[in-house]
Specification:
- This protein is mainly β.
- Among the domains are: 71-206, Methylamine Dehydrogenase, Chain H (7 Propeller); 526-553 and 567-660, Methylamine Dehydrogenase, Chain H (7 Propeller), CATH 2.130.10; 669-750, Outer membrane usher protein (Immunoglobulin-like).
- It is 2% helix and 45% strand.
- The chain contains 2 helices and 64 strands.
- The radius of gyration is 30 Å and the shape is globular.
Length: 753
């Protein structure tokens, strides 16, 4: 056990992405824990996840990520295969990549084809550089050397589309496995594109044939059962069927000239050409807490390479075993991102569109010093659907959309708060659930939370440990779903209601105050009653994201005196409209320069000026590496300026120009310093006071460049006002606050070749 863990940590650390991420650069934070397919090209083992690929070099033990940041053209990898020279990468939408020597050749023909139906590529069968792609509609023939599509076979009744799960060659026939039996055609037929060339085998014609492979003049066929461990294996010689094995879950069949490899969820079986079992590798031999095998290859030097749902790529070699995976979160799905100092924490649970649990059981993921880890305690205690995280004085609090609130000390389990030891309540309906939507701290360190569908939906844990709950008045009934909450600088609580506006609550006012806000002109003037996000910006304004754009409360201190929201007018294509009208805003975040970052539901990330009138960035799948245009959450590392963007297909980050401003110039850092001849990127001055004025001169005092920091960071491209690259020498960087009262001077060395 110790050997496995130590080796895993080594491989997790191999491909650490440096903290020297340049301004404008991206990096991925996908999970590489759950793997699917594996193949070999030379000394490299390629392994797929549902979002990406990683490759392990047998010679130097290095691990390389392959995703949309470098070599992949798409997300949602469905399968991979190799012809010995090329890596064939297939996608769920029919897209296709051929990768050779680090170069990607994209073939979008299937993806772009005017076919109605499933374009997923399920399996690849390669014979002499001709690949037969098993697709959701039929078979596509690909020449991997010429990198072109040769033919398409629609083999269903009368040429109808049919979902092909795998293919193989035997007995001069091409066999195709489908959800309703096996089809075959003679490989010498002059026109396999004609559906009449194909016949359906009578036996097992109503069975789902999930896998088949040719081996020792037989076809090995897997009939997939409806329940766990009910698959049945048959052999078929072209005429006679014979029972081979049954009562297993067979997830992969692979064959060579001498060996048949059957991957089962709990072990690997190896058979010789006489179908005698020569080896059984049990999952128990890895001594891991949990395994679920998915595919495997057995190389000529007697090494097993196995993909697994929980442990990345497993390597077994004559008793030696290891787990290999790049560093990444526990899973790729993210409900919330939180920044605590130099750490990024992820909550992976969620509620669905109907506000019901998703039954996601997962750990917390923590990024520190560019290495991901997990809390190691949540899974053991059956906590489901973690939707929010917060920290205070060494304690971490976790909100669950089923189980109440968990407190941790560091990453160690401390307490579960539920109806037995707090004011938390079970739902008025479905009383087995305690739905906590959010947790926030007020200015005194009291912990507040939203407790959905209860008679008193707001609870607070005071610093002395006592709990208390509050009603939100007649406008919020026990059947109302509530979730997100913020506490503004006046300690007012702003609370999201499902499809019914929002409520502002203040227990400190005489008799407690509540005000319900809606889209009515007199009741809040929100852009819509469907609220998805809100935040207090650096000026104390409350920005609210709806399914119809953005509303702003410019003076929230007067919310109980009738303050209403305003919408921001912008010019789009020569016409005036409201900011992000028609867009659903899943999250709003504010960077160190008070710029607004909007997470839209289908249009990517939109960044505006602090007043919302000017668009700074608009990141989409078309112009950036983000994995999807559906953005779930956004969070900043205030110190580095790195922006973490959670999509519905995984987490990615971007180093922005803005950071949180410091109170003084005590921690100013200029990097890189010196600037070496081969460096062409931006020069960053961080650790500045908010909106500092930065002037750069040569050693003689001639002004070269001048700018104003975005929050606590300024960026220089190394060029003068005239656009000329700086010469070798020492440059002075003068920094001052807006009033010119606080100053700092740094030196920067330029080295030109």
């Amino acid at each position: 056990m110790k050997k496995i863990l130590s080796l895993s940590l080594i491989f997790l650390s191999i491909n650490l992405q440096s903290q020297s991420l340049k301004v404008g650069e991206w990096r991925d934070h996908l999970s590489y824990k759950s793997t699917y397919d594996v193949c070999q090209i030379g000394n490299k083992i390629y392994t797929s996840t549902d979002k990406a690929i990683f490759v392990y070099d047998i010679n130097d033990n290095s691990v390389e990520r392959i995703n949309t940041l470098n070599d992949l053209s798409d997300t949602e990898v469905s399968t991979i295969e190799s012809d010995g020279e090329n890596l064939i990468v297939c996608y769920a939408n029919g897209n296709l990549d051929i990768i050779n020597s680090g170069k990607t050749h994209n073939l979008p023909d299937i993806k772009r084809a005017s076919l109605i139906g499933d374009k997923r590529i399920n399996h690849v069968n390669i014979i002499d550089h001709i690949a037969y792609l098993s697709c959701g509609f039929g078979i596509v023939v690909l020449d991997t050397e010429r990198r072109e599509i040769k033919d398409t076979y629609l083999i269903g009744n009368n040429g109808a589309q049919i979902n092909i799960l795998s293919t193989c060659f035997a007995h001069n026939n091409l066999y195709a496995a489908t959800e309703s039996g096996i089809y075959k055609a003679n490989i010498n037929h002059p026109n396999l594109t004609n559906y009449e060339a194909w016949t359906k085998i009578d036996a097992h014609s109503n069975s789902r044939i999930s896998h088949l492979t040719a081996f020792s003049d037989l076809i090995i066929v897997n009939l997939q059962g409806e329940l766990f461990n009910t698959d049945t294996l048959y052999t078929f010689n072209g005429e006679i069927w014979a029972l081979f094995d049954q009562n297993h879950s067979n997830v992969s069949l692979k064959s060579s000239d001498t060996e048949l490899t059957i991957t089962r969820r709990y072990g690997i079986n190896i058979f010789d050409t006489e179908l005698n079992q020569t080896r059984f590798l049990s999952s128990a031999e890895f001594n891991l807490a949990k395994t679920d095998f998915r595919s495997s290859i057995f190389t000529q030097n007697k090494e097993y390479w196995i993909t697994d749902k929980y442990n990345g790529l497993l390597h077994f070699d004559q008793g030696f075993h290891e787990s290999i995976q790049p560093s990444g979160p526990y899973i790729s799905e993210v409900a919330q991102i939180k920044n605590f100092g130099d750490e990024i924490w992820l909550a992976h649970g969620d509620k669905n569109e109907n506000w019901d649990p998703t039954w996601t059981k997962s750990e917390l993921s923590i990024l520190k010093e560019d290495l991901w880890s997990t809390s190691n305690t949540i899974l053991d205690n059956d906590i489901m659907d973690i939707v929010a995280i917060n920290q205070h004085e060494g304690h971490t609090y976790i909100a669950s959309w089923q189980n109440g609130i968990v407190s941790l000390v560091g990453t160690d389990w401390e307490t579960l708060f539920d109806t037995n030891n707090s004011s938390l309540q079970k739902r008025a309906i479905h009383e087995d659930w305690i739905n906590i939507g959010d947790i926030q701290f007020d200015s005194e360190g009291n912990l507040w939370c939203t407790n959905s569908q209860t008679y008193e939906p707001i609870s607070v844990k005071y610093t002395n440990g006592d709990w208390e709950s509050y009603s939100l008045g007649s406008s919020v009934t026990e059947h109302q779903n509530i979730a997100k909450m913020i506490i503004d600088k006046n300690d007012q609580k702003w609370i999201q209601l499902r499809d019914n506006g929002m409520v502002v609550f203040d227990e400190q006012r005489s008799g407690t105050k509540t005000r319900k806000l809606t889209n009515s002109e007199s009741g809040g003037n929100l852009a819509s009653d469907r609220i998805f996000s809100f935040i207090e910006d650096l000026d104390g304004e409350i920005w609210v994201g709806t399914d119809n754009g953005v509303s702003v409360f410019y003076d929230p201190g007067y919310i109980f005196e009738g303050e209403n929201a305003s919408q921001i007018t912008v010019t789009l294509d020569g016409h005036n409209t409201y900011l992000l009208k028609g867009q659903r805003i899943n999250d709003i975040e504010v960077d160190g320069a008070n710029r607004k970052w909007f997470a839209t539901n289908n249009s990517g990330v939109i960044v505006t000026s602090e007043n919302g009138t000017e668009e700074i960035h608009h990141f989409t799948t078309d112009n950036s590496p983000i994995f999807s245009n559906k953005i779930i959450d956004i969070e900043f590392n205030d110190q580095s300026g790195e922006v973490f963007i959670a999509t519905d297909k995984g987490l990615i980050s971007f180093r922005s120009k803005a950071t949180k401003g410091n109170s003084d110039f005590a921690d100013v850092l200029v990097f890189p310093n010196p600037v070496k001849p081969d460096y062409e990127g931006p020069i960053t001055i961080k650790g500045l006071v908010t909106d500092a004025v930065v002037k750069i001169t040569d050693i003689s005092g001639n002004l070269i460049y001048e700018t104003v920091a975005l929050g606590g960071q300024a960026v220089w491209d190394g060029k003068s006002f005239e656009g000329k690259r700086a010469h070798s020498g020492v440059y002075l960087i003068f920094c001052s606050d807006e009033d010119g009262k606080v100053t700092h001077v740094s030196k920067l060395l330029f080295i030109r070749g």
